[in-house]
Amino acid sequence: LPRDTDVRKQKRILRMFLRTLTSRFSKGLKGGLSTPKFQRRCYSEEWKSLPRDTDKADVVIVGAGPAGLAAAIRIKQKCEETGKDLRVCVLEKASELGMHSLSGAVLEPRSLKELLTEEEIAELQQNDGILSTPVVSDQIFFLTDGSSGKIPLPVIGEQNNHGNYIISIGNLVKYLGEKAENMGVEIYPGYPAAELLENEDGSIKGVATVDMGITKKGEPGPNFQRGLELHAPVTLFGEGCRGSCSQKLLKKYNLTAESDPQIYGLGVKEIWEIDPKKHKKGSVTHSMGWPVDTSTWGGSFMYQYGKNLVSIGYVVGLDYKNPYTRPYMEFQRLKHHKLFADVLEGGRCISYGARALNEGGFQAIPKLYFPGGALIGCSAGFLNVAKIKGIHTAMKSGMLAGEAAFEALTAEDYPGLDAEERPAISLESYEKNLKESWVYKELHRIRNVRPSWDFGLPFFMLFNGFHWLISKGKEPWTWHHTSTDNKSLKKASECKKIDYPKPDGVLSFDLLTNLSRSGTNHEEDQPAHLTLKNPSVPVDVNLALYDGPESRYCPAGVYEFVDDEANAGQKRLQINAQNCLHCKTCGMSEQKFFISWLFTFSLLALVDIYFLDIKDPEQNIVWTVPEGGGGPAYSGM
Q1: Cβ proximity of 115 and 70 under 8 Å
Q2: Cα–Cα distance measured from residue 503 to residue 494, given in angstroms and rounded to the nearest whole number
Q3: What is the pTM of this model?
Q4: With the C-alpha atoms ordered 15, 19, 20, 24, is the resulting torsion angle positive or negative?
Q5: Order of strands across the sheet with 229-231?
Q6: N or C end of the chain: smaller count of CB under 10 Å?
Q7: What is the Cα–Cα distance from 139 to 52, expressed in whole angstroms?
Q8: Mean pLDDT of the chain
Q9: How confident is the model at residue 421 (pLDDT cuts 50, 70, 90)?
Q10: CB neighbours (10 Å) of residue 94?
Q11: Distance (Å, rounded) from C-alpha 390 to C-alpha 303?
Q12: In Å, how far from its chain's centre is CA 8?
């Protein structure tokens, strides 16, 4: 490790190394000290049947975001209050906390104030602390054209940001991670959960991390390392929107049986450093209308915070109809509107990223618990679309899940960590408590805001005035989401092509230039984590009918149609997996349930299941977890 590596990180890595070494050594004594089996060169998939190192915890949390870390902290707080001790382990796919975290973000501090002491909150409000930029001004505009046309809209109801703070979610995650580790939580960045593990009764036993050192050919390389199994009676999944393990659980336990289909938006964001003379610290600006057409859900944000920093971004609803829509380019031309250009001119863009977000709201909340665990945060979909906020609701869900897990694990009749068998825990009390909390009430209150868009822009504007000024969420009806985003596209022949202006390199940028600001990177010699279920679909269906929408909706340039060298005059889809920002807009996730290592690989292949994802028309793209540390390396996003 480099000499300047953080001490806590050194200890964390050392713990993991010693645990693995001890396990290997004990196996060597039992079976002789010959060359370990995992070092042999394999030309088949027999390595998948090799045993993995196993560890146990009281609670395993998948995802070190606001929800997962809030859950871990709350469990340890309850331990301190009662004098008990529980082992809590957090797995995170990013190599450092915060590197995969992206949000606007204006924070409603309600959950944070419930989690921290008054002294800790006061400290965060000082100098360059996380809460050092309170919102001081709030404005919303309806943009009418691409030059300077705008209509001011009233800031009413929950859209008012008085008492909120402009923050970096990455910095918030780092702070929560440090606090959690100081309380005894074990956090393992660079260890993504790849597989669900089951008990014989079908309950969740824990997770296994991704195998490392597999080459592009699918063979174990010189640095091959089987993933680690982490077993626990409670596993909380806080992976964010469309988390790979979370989506498997939705399918396995049919958690969406009584909820509406989830709908999504794609958020594209940049951070700028601007002229100090233009900077208005604490200023919040939102817009709707141009540049998208009146049938497409879209809106912008511009937050000024810190030392001359501006967080600017654009969200496009992924239920858009025109396959020629390109969310990234909509954002680029947005910045040329005078409202934004006047602020950005003379500054420089320093960071870029993108992320899908849940927009289904109250109607799309799934069942939250299952045998052995629960969904928390954006894995369940607690974003408040009307407020344009979700950090506070995500944290609260994690806190409630942590409390429920603590109560179940410390019950008098429940066995401790040293017991040979510990039954999986079902957290019914978590869902019950969440439904009685302010989170559920808040989301219920704004349940009709997003669905009202389906009736058109004029109706949406009228209803929102009625909603915020008169009904205030007490409407005696609930509108529902009836379709998924991938079904919304019209055929290319039915739509008009969109002529996006060429980026000028000053306010707007080509995609590869911006991608370099995200720090995204993946180990090159590994199997592609983006594959096709049917290789013929991109050309025969997507290109033929929709003119290749995957080359436009992806904010990282992962998909492009190029000339097929083997077939003159034809095209093929090229996948640049190295570019992937892990935004989750594109594909399906592969679902494999490994019931027991006693089964053969051929039998396991029979239980492969695929579930639908967001925007690909034929649901043909398969997204799997890459090696740990791969993906974006956001700083302060």
Answers
A1: yes
A2: 27
A3: 0.89
A4: positive
A5: 54-56, 229-231, 204-209, 193-198, 593-594
A6: N
A7: 55
A8: 88
A9: confident
A10: 25
A11: 16
A12: 25
